[in-house]
């Protein structure tokens, strides 16, 4: 499309020459960055002299350049004088528009040279400046998605960053997406967002809250994304693209104490998350307060969500045996409650348990847990019998025994004194009676 201020009349001619060049057609109407534009030029002799050896040339300037294989100059052998419009010579030229050209209007020169017929061979040169409109290229793309995977049955944010990578503003954009399998769905809103205006080079973030079906199989799912917008002439256009989103992730476990025999414990391990756990290994790592004999790990295989298994280990409590002098063990030992009848000790220091598994993406994950356990004390430790156990159990009653012993000793001394005093009185009475008897005899 030619600019409104372009002149095609004789004012564009030099020395009142007879050659007049006009652009009669342009395809497309506005040049597009990165695309060729074709110009149809009419060359007409409106003068009173015939012309020969006419040369018409295009002088491209940025953002226009030569198209490979297409000439920038063309020749016309002869033009009669006083031509009508229908008699004009028609030439076609192709130019390439720079892919980074900004939207706007640009000048372009058409230069013609010709020789007058007859005995005179005077050369006539004409330069015509036209204006070509360049329309920006409308194009948008999804540059990034903020997530590569989402978990099952868990509300998670999903963001698309849309960038206008073209040269023209985008108007009335509509962004929508769909999972053909219906596994991933939006929550709190539908799957459509609107953007009224987006300048070239600018980006906009559209946000959704999504959730994956709890019963879906872990794996990679396709999102079909559609971007529709209005172009320069308010025509509706759309861009379709796809994005991949992995459904499935990590899981969680619940570990509880199951049962205990002397020197052995059993743990119940349950998959309480929403994803399957592959190649599960349960381990009791080295830690204070406990000693593991034999293997410290047990491979239990795969655990579906909701499944559980039992893992057993040979574990002895070094707390109950009094091994070690760390404050934590001493505290745990002081908190132990002994039951002499059942010979069981309740150990308060938690047992550390480590669970390793492979998730649906093939990554190895480690989960640490702490479990409260009740252990049967081994012989000769927490349930000792005999002099040492008796001495230990009586130690706390020593003050009471001392008081009782003092009381018994005092009572014994009191009774001995009283008994001695009574015997003395009895002897004195016996002597008096003897004196009385002797006096009676003398009488």
TrEMBL record:
<keyword id="KW-1133">Transmembrane helix</keyword>
<keyword id="KW-0472">Membrane</keyword>
<feature type="transmembrane region" description="Helical">
    <location>
        <begin position="397"/>
        <end position="414"/>
    </location>
</feature>
<keyword id="KW-0812">Transmembrane</keyword>
<feature type="region of interest" description="Disordered">
    <location>
        <begin position="417"/>
        <end position="443"/>
    </location>
</feature>
<feature type="compositionally biased region" description="Basic and acidic residues">
    <location>
        <begin position="420"/>
        <end position="443"/>
    </location>
</feature>
<protein>
    <recommendedName>
        <fullName>NPCBM-associated, NEW3 domain of alpha-galactosidase</fullName>
    </recommendedName>
</protein>
């Amino acid at each position: 499309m030619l600019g409104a201020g372009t002149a095609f009349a004789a004012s564009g001619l030099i020395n009142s020459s007879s050659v007049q060049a006009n652009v009669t057609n342009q395809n497309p109407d506005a040049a597009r960055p990165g695309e060729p534009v074709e110009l149809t030029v009419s060359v007409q002799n409106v003068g009173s002299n015939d012309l020969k050896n006419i040369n018409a040339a295009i002088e491209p300037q940025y953002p226009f350049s030569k198209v490979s294989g297409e000439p920038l100059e063309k020749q016309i052998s002869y033009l009669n004088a006083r031509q009508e419009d229908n008699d004009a010579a028609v030439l076609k030229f192709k130019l390439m528009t720079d892919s980074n050209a900004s939207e706007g209007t640009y000048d372009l020169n058409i230069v013609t040279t010709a020789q007058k017929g007859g005995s005179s061979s005077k050369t006539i040169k004409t330069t015509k400046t036209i204006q070509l409109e360049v329309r920006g290229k409308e194009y948008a793309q999804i540059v990034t998605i903020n997530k590569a995977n989402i978990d099952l049955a868990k509300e998670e944010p999903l963001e698309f960053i849309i960038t206008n990578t073209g040269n023209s503003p985008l108007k009335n954009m509509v962004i929508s997406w769909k999972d053909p399998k219906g596994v991933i769905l939006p929550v709190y809103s539908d799957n459509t967002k609107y953007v009224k205006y987006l300048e070239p080079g600018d980006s906009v973030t559209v946000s959704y809250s999504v959730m994956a079906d709890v019963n879906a199989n872990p794996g990679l799912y396709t999102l079909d994304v559609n971007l529709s917008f209005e172009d320069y002439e308010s025509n509706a256009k759309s861009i379709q693209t796809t994005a991949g989103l992995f459904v499935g992730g990590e899981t969680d476990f619940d570990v509880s104490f199951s049962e205990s025999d002397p020197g052995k414990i059993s743990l119940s391990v349950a998959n309480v998350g929403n994803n399957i756990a592959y190649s599960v290994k349960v381990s009791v790592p080295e830690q204070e307060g406990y000693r593991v004999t034999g293997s410290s790990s047990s491979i239990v295989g795969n655990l579906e969500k909701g499944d559980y298994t039992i893992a057993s280990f040979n574990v002895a409590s070094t707390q109950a045996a009094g091994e070690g002098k760390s404050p934590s063990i001493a505290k745990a030992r002081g908190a132990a409650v002994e039951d002499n009848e059942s010979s069981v000790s309740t150990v308060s220091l938690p047992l550390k348990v480590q669970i390793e598994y492979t998730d649906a993406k093939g990554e190895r994950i480690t989960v640490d847990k702490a479990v409260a356990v009740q252990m049967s004390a081994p012989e000769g430790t927490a349930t000792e019998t005999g002099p040492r156990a008796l001495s230990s159990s009586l130690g706390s009653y020593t003050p009471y025994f001392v008081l009782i012993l003092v009381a018994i000793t005092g009572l014994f001394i009191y009774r001995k004194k009283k008994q001695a005093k009574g015997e003395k009185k009895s002897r004195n009475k016996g002597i008096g009676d003897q004196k009385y008897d002797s006096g009676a005899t003398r009488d």
